[in-house]
Design brief:
There is one protein chain. The protein is mostly helical and about 220 residues long. Helix content is about 60%, strand content about 0%. It contains ten helices and no strands. The longest helix has 21 residues. It starts with a helix and ends in a 5-residue tail after the last helix.
């Protein structure tokens, strides 16, 4: 099941690479390597091959901005496995989602880096931030255009984002959150394989839709 989930994330990674170029691949590789190395060194025998470490690193990377230094992504992957999984006894014993625990750690440790959002533009080989910065060294200035995410635009500028851009993913944000269409297709694959219960995401979508519609009906100028 774990490897099928990894397979389902490949289109999301391809979309991230399309929008954010080589930076997306560098951050993903670093976070996954941190998780896999920690699993290999401190995990039990043969647990590396169940796919849980790989999926933890990939999921963590997909929650990160594309310009994040690789060493931070690596530390996040190591923390996710070490303190999100192994410390509780291994697979199935953890009380927190390891990838999200790694994300929370990085957010607390490096808040500026975790809230800097490059605009999805430029060539594939153009770095979207300080990916190659050395650990604990002030990074060199990189010629990158940053911008607000759709949520940031709505909160601070009271400006919405076109639905087409949200569906296709032509927006700023974390590596794996931009293209709603790709994410839905990958989720549909997992649902078709019976690896997730479709009622859970469907109920979340319906709840958000109903709440938003009620607020908009009450006060359309504000909502």
């Amino acid at each position: 099941i774990m490897w099928h989930v990894v397979l389902s994330l490949v289109p999301v990674l391809v979309a991230a690479g399309y929008f954010f170029g080589v930076s997306a691949l560098l951050v993903t590789a670093a976070a996954t390597l941190g998780a896999v190395v920690t699993e290999a060194v401190f995990g039990q025998r043969r647990t590396l091959w169940d796919g849980s470490a790989a999926i933890t690193g990939i999921l963590l990377a997909l929650t990160l901005p594309p310009g994040l230094p690789m060493w931070m992504a690596f530390v996040g992957g190591a923390f996710a496995i070490g303190f999100g999984k192994l410390i509780f006894g291994g697979l199935g014993q953890n009380i927190f989602n390891p990838a999200l625990l790694g994300r929370a750690f990085l957010q607390a440790a490096f808040p500026v880096a975790l809230t800097t959002w490059p605009v999805p533009r430029g060539g594939f080989w153009q770095l979207k931030g300080d990916n190659l910065a050395l650990p604990f060294v002030h990074p060199h200035a990189v010629d990158v255009v940053t911008g607000a995410t759709p949520l940031g635009l709505m909160k601070f500028d009271h400006a919405g984002t076109e639905l087409t851009r949200l569906v296709l993913g032509v927006t700023g944000g974390s590596l794996g959150e931009t293209s709603g269409l790709v994410i839905l297709l990958c989720g549909a694959y997992l649902a078709a394989r019976n690896y997730l219960n479709w009622r859970t995401p469907a109920s979340i979508f319906l709840t958000v839709f109903l709440c938003a519609q009620v607020l908009h009906t009450i006060k359309p100028a504000r909502f």
